[in-house]
Structures are given as structure tokens and as C-alpha cells.
Amino acid sequence: MIPAALAPLAWTALRFGAVAAVAIVASRAATQPKDAEHQAVLDGIPEGMGGHAHRAEDERAVHGHGRLRRVLRLKPGGPALEIDASALGRVRLRRVG
């Protein structure tokens, strides 16, 4: 009887433990310094979306990039929040076999 009653509590404790572990790992990863070269590459991306096709040997790829920069102000003359989102991406297809 007792093990059956503890099973839901054990699963709940396991879930909370997993969430806590992920939070700890994420908080430690956030304190590492940013790589200056990566930041420079992302700062150099032009605003808007773009992409180009690339073909090499047996693979085809599409390289894409995008950047969105906006300033949000809740009320005129009030404090502002700048949003700068940049992304690089690649989708690659190749024939296997």
C-alpha cells in the first residue's frame, strides 16, 4: 500500500528536480562571457531577411540570415527598450546511398 501511494509523489519530485537542474545549468551558462567574434558577425548582418543557394559536390544548401531591430517606447518621452534579434541559418540536403 505505501509504495503505491508514494509513486505519484516520486514522479512529481523527479519532475521538479529535472526542472531545477535545467534552471541551474541555464543560469551557469548565462554567466559565461560572450565571444567577441560571434557578436561582431551578428552585428554585421544587415537588417531584414536574406538568403542564397549554395551547391557543392553532392549537396545543395540554402544559407539564410535575418535581423530585426526595433525600439519600443511605452509612452512618449518614457524609457525605451531596444530589441535586436539576429540569426544565421543553413538547411542542407544531400543524397545518401
Helix and strand element order: HHEEE
Task: Summarize the amount of helix as a percent range.
Answer: 25-40%
* Cα distance spanning the termini: 56 Å
What is the molecular shape? flat
Give the percentage of residues in beta strands.
35-45%
Low-confidence parts, pLDDT < 50 over ≥5 residues?
none
Number of separate strands: 3
- The order of strands across the largest sheet is 1-2-3
Classification by helices and strands:
alpha+beta
Q: If helices are DSSP runs of H or I spanning 4 or more residues, what is the number of helices?
A: 2
Keywords: Signal
Organism: Amaricoccus macauensis
Protein name: Secreted protein
Signal peptide: 1-20
Structure summary:
With about 100 residues, the chain is of the alpha+beta class. About 40% of the residues lie in helices and about 40% in strands. It has helices spanning about 1-30, 35-45; strands spanning about 50-55, 60-75, 80-95.
